[in-house]
């Protein structure tokens, strides 16, 4: 198949999954064209059957904000016409799916099909806003095939927008052959004594991630045992998290590592992953940690319970329940045998349920159904 993937190029989960999906599809012999405003950061080396197309932006004084969506429509239409694409796979309803539909309109009799994958904030944040509600619903319903990254998001989408067409749940994934715990990671990361426990949080530091809660949980762990906290990412809650570190006098034990392209060594150095989010449609960071044999302490919300099995691969607690999360963290970290058992279970769950070997073929079958007009017959 000839597939165009429209995605954000940034470090967020949707961009990561979209890029990894394209790379995996290319390895299976499909031709993949990425379309975005800059090179996705995971496209860090040459790969056969993978092409990148940058959206051309017009710098014109009349426009206060350059009309990216119009330029994206034009680029999609150009590629569909020139490359004879079979599928446009839009990751996010707004603006990517909408732009794909507009490109179909521009081309008129267009046989290219549009698949829309919903990742979370396009439904729970952007799409739910009155300014975008109608256009989001239109983009979803107009799609030839719709997927969501968790059952929770599938149900929320149908409930929020009254979607009648089937929404297929296809989970996020990772390549578990490449994504696994690395030996000697602590030495490479540095400043991590062998006798201390290492806790990690990775996110874009938006308020929904509740990064100050991470610091509060760590503070309670640190009172009971030697420990270090690695905070990976950046965003609007960076200053608030730093203020919490200063208030709790944890400067010697907390490291802000900023945005990192390669978090595999950091996760490999970890004993525990913290994800106290207000909302997560899936929780890709938790899955990446689990693939590195790291148990997860997370909020019992959204799609997280579909990834993290309470009492088996980690523990779940109500959103904002710092005391419960701290107690669970101490329960795991104070028992080396249990920590190892949970880490092994986390790795096994990642391999059995969320590996690229099992998930990517689901997308291939879905594409076939879309092209044959069968995807709306049943979920």
CATH class of the largest domain: Alpha Beta
Cα Rg:
21 Å
Number of structural units classed as domains: 2
- Helix fraction, binned, reads 40-55%
What is the 3D form? globular
According to DSSP, the number of beta strands is 13
| Order of neighbouring strands in the sheet with most strands | 3-2-1-4-5-6-7
CATH fold name of the largest domain: Rossmann fold
The fourth-level CATH homologous superfamily of the largest domain is Glycogen Phosphorylase B
N- and C-termini, Cα separation: 23 Å
Question: Main beta sheet: strand number and arrangement?
Answer: 7 strands, parallel
Mean of the pLDDT scores?
92
Unreliable parts: none
Q: What's the oligomerization state?
A: single chain
The topology string of helices and strands comes to EHEEHEHEHHEHEHEHEHEHEHEHEHHH
Structural class given helices, strands, pairing?
A: alpha/beta
Features:
379 residues, alpha/beta, Rossmann fold, 2 domains, seven-stranded parallel sheet, 15 helices, 44% helix
Q: Explain this structure to me?
A:
The model has no long low-confidence stretch (mean pLDDT 92). A 7-stranded parallel sheet has the order 3-2-1-4-5-6-7, with helices on both faces. Strands 10-9-8-11-12-13 form a 6-stranded parallel sheet, with helices on both faces. The radius of gyration is 21 Å and the shape is globular. Helix 2 crosses helix 3 and helix 11 crosses helix 14. The protein contains 15 helices and 13 strands. The two termini are 23 Å apart. Strand 6 (145-148), helix 6 and strand 7 form a beta-alpha-beta unit. With 379 residues, the chain is α/β, with parallel strands linked by helices. The chain folds into 2 domains: 2-173 and 355-372, Glycogen Phosphorylase B (Rossmann fold), CATH 3.40.50; 185-353, Glycogen Phosphorylase B (Rossmann fold), CATH 3.40.50.
């Amino acid at each position: 198949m000839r597939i165009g993937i429209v995605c954000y190029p940034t470090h967020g989960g949707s961009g990561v999954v979209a890029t990894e999906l394209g790379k995996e599809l290319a390895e299976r012999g499909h031709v993949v064209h990425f379309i975005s405003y800059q090179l996705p950061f995971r496209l860090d080396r040459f790969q056969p059957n993978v092409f990148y197309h940058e959206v051309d932006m017009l710098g014109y004084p009349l426009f206060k904000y350059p009309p990216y969506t119009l330029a994206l429509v034009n680029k999609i239409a150009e590629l569909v016409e020139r490359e004879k694409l079979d599928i446009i796979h839009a990751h996010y309803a707004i603006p990517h799916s909408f732009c794909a539909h507009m490109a179909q309109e521009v081309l008129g009799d267009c046989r290219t099909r549009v698949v829309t994958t919903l990742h979370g904030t396009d439904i729970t944040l952007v799409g739910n806003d009155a300014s975008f509600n109608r256009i989001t619903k239109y983009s979803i319903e107009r799609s030839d095939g719709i997927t969501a990254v968790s059952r929770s998001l599938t149900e929320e989408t149908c409930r929020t927008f009254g979607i009648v067409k089937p929404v297929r749940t296809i989970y996020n994934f990772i390549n578990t052959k490449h994504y696994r715990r690395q030996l000697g990671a602590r030495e490479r990361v540095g400043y991590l004594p062998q006798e201390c426990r290492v806790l990690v949080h990775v996110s874009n530091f938006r308020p929904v991630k509740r990064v100050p809660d991470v610091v509060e949980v760590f503070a309670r762990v640190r009172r009971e045992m030697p420990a270090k906290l690695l905070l990976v990412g950046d965003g609007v809650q960076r200053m608030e998290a730093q203020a919490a570190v200063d208030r709790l006098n944890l400067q010697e034990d907390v490291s802000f590592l900023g945005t990192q392209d390669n978090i595999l060594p950091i996760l490999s150095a970890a004993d525990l992953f913290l994800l106290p989010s207000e909302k997560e449609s899936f929780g890709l960071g938790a899955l990446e940690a689990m693939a590195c044999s790291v148990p997860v302490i997370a909020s019992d919300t959204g799609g997280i319970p579909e990834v993290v099995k309470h009492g088996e691969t980690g523990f779940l607690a109500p959103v904002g329940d710092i005391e419960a999360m701290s107690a669970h963290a101490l329960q795991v970290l104070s028992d080396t045998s249990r920590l190892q058992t949970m880490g092994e279970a986390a790795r096994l769950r990642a391999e059995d349920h969320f590996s690229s070997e099992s998930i990517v073929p689901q997308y291939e079958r879905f594409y076939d159904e879309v092209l044959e007009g069968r995807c709306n017959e049943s979920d």
